[in-house]
Design a protein that fits this description.
The protein has 456 residues and is mainly alpha-helical. The protein folds into 3 domains: 1-190, Growth Hormone, Chain: A (Up-down Bundle), CATH 1.20.1250; 201-388, MFS general substrate transporter like domains (Growth Hormone, Chain: A, Up-down Bundle); 393-455, 2-Layer Sandwich (Alpha-Beta Plaits). The protein has 17 helices and 3 strands. It has helices at 9-30, 36-40, 48-76, 78-97, 102-114, 118-128, 134-163, 165-185, 206-211, 213-240, 250-273, 277-298, 302-330, 336-364, 366-385, 408-415, 443-455, and strands at residues 393-399, 420-426, 431-437. The protein has a 3-stranded antiparallel beta sheet with strand order 1-3-2, covered by helices on one side. Strand 2 (420-426) and strand 3 form a beta hairpin. InterPro entries: MFS (IPR011701), MFS_dom (IPR020846), MFS_trans_sf (IPR036259), MFS_Transporters (IPR050171), Tet-R_TetA/multi-R_MdtG-like (IPR001958). GO terms for molecular function: transmembrane transporter activity.
Length: 456
């Protein structure tokens, strides 16, 4: 079936089911973000550092268990491992709901993160969809995560104020069980044995991913962004409580998040159409830097707090789709899973260290916290300046006929050329496809190299 025929009914069912599972799981993490620091303060043993650990603890276990869960899914199958991960996530939610100390809450959050099935869900999606539709499927999962974040940030304060924050963890546990029903009865099962695919992390490709300057800058960026997100919410709800009751905080979060999302859509469209992705990326990072300058100067007032958060979420909502979009442009086909795995682990480690940093600095003072975040974000902006412009990427295609019996040597040598980002052979139409940076090589250079290899 060709590109024009669209996704099959099975692929659409797969996308809908797996997007729901992603959304349910991430909603369960996001829903407590705006309220957990307030709730944890009421538990025995609470101090700013423990608040930060409780807030970001899930990120540590998420980062540690991503790879083991992926390896287990190769041996025991995707669905059984996803079910096990969701059960662990539900168990951690129950422990957090029944915690009688901040340490118990921290352990519950660690257990929540231990059910690290994100990479397995992506691998299952790859098993059940054709290659030409995987980008679309990944975009669908990205949309579900964005919506779960927005809904969770608004629903959390409302439900938490009405029924207690522990009710949010009970809701999370219930949704995890719903996710098990979806994986068992909605998502199709792969036929035959599970095989490694390009959407999985491979240690053999890790060196390339970590040495690629563009990918490294994006990994640093997602690490930094989620470090900032967690660090901000260690102190922000506590500071805002001086002016607004927790039950009314949704009135702040709703317009701030929706405003950021509203601005994000036209900004992404303009960036894509006018080929200004790097410019949009740098502007978004600049918004993050500016938000910490506002926080630093105005965290002692209601206006300063809300203005800082509004500016932060303009940058955050623009960066969330920009970073994976830029990342996918610089990955090689065979390193998709590894690049995505490092990206996700960077995000989760950022969330954990943001909790540690935010809690530790808040113990000193909020001035120390926002001063440090301002300094770190400024360094991040300087690193981001060196990002290779993704709009320099172009493609080269050439039919190679039936004489090429083994394309691998040609793919390898073309891939080693300066400026070549990716190279693959499409067996269906016998075309060699190359993605390259036009400021480092040309179509003529590629044509000469390929002609020489075919004549050899």
């Amino acid at each position: 079936m060709g590109e024009k025929d669209g996704m099959t009914a099975l692929e659409k069912r797969t996308l809908a089911g797996l997007s729901l599972i992603f959304a349910i799981r991430m909603f369960g993490l996001f829903i407590v973000l705006p309220v957990i620091s307030l709730y944890a303060r009421t538990l025995p043993g609470a101090d700013p550092l423990w608040l930060g650990l409780a807030l970001g603890g899930y990120g540590l276990s998420q980062a540690i268990f991503q790879v083991p869960f992926g390896m287990l899914s190769d041996r025991f199958g995707r669905k059984p491992v996803i079910v096990a991960g969701l059960l662990i996530f539900a168990g951690g939610s129950v422990m957090a709901a029944t915690a009688h100390s901040v340490f118990g809450l921290f352990v519950g959050r660690l257990i929540q993160g231990t059910g690290a099935v994100a990479s397995v869900v992506i691998a299952l999606m790859a098993d059940l969809t054709r290659e030409e539709y995987r980008t679309r499927a990944m975009a669908g999962i990205g949309v579900s995560i964005g919506l779960s974040f927005a809904v969770g940030m608004v629903v959390g304060p409302i439900v938490g104020a009405a029924y207690g924050v522990s009710s949010l963890f009970w809701l999370t546990a219930t949704l995890a069980l719903l996710g098990i029903g979806i994986i068992l009865f909605v998502v199709p099962s792969p036929k035959g044995a599970v095989h490694k695919n390009e959407m999985e992390l491979s240690f053999s490709q890790l060196g390339y991913v970590l040495k690629n300057p563009a990918l490294l800058r994006i990994d640093i960026s997602v690490f930094s962004l989620h470090l900032f997100l967690t660090a901000v919410f260690v102190s922000f709800p506590v500071l805002l409580k001086q002016y607004i009751a927790p039950s009314a905080m949704w009135k702040v979060y709703l317009p701030v998040i929706l405003g950021g999302m509203f601005l994000m859509v036209p900004a992404m469209i303009v960036a894509e159409k006018r080929k200004k992705l790097k410019t949009a990326f740098l502007i978004a990072v600049a918004f993050i830097v500016a938000s910490f300058a506002i926080f630093l100067g105005g965290y002692k007032s209601e206006t300063g707090l809300i203005a800082g958060l509004a500016v932060f979420f303009i940058g955050f909502n623009l960066l969330e789709p920009l970073m994976p979009s830029i990342m996918t442009r610089f990955v090689r086909t065979r390193t998709r899973g590894t690049s995505s795995g490092v990206f996700n682990m960077s995000q989760f480690m950022g969330a954990f260290l943001g909790g540690v940093l935010g809690g530790g600095l808040a113990t000193v003072s909020n001035t120390a916290l926002f001063s440090a975040l301002l300094a770190i974000s400024a360094v991040w902006f300087l690193i981001a300046l060196g990002l290779t412009d993704p709009n320099l990427l172009e493609t080269f295609e050439r039919p190679v006929g039936e004489g090429l019996h083994d394309p691998q040597p040609v793919i390898r040598q073309m891939g080693e050329m300066s400026g070549v980002v990716d190279c693959r052979y499409r067996e269906s139409d016998r075309i060699l496809w190359v993605k390259y940076l036009r400021d480092r090589t040309t179509q003529e250079d590629l044509e000469r190299k390929l002609s020489g290899l075919l004549e050899a």
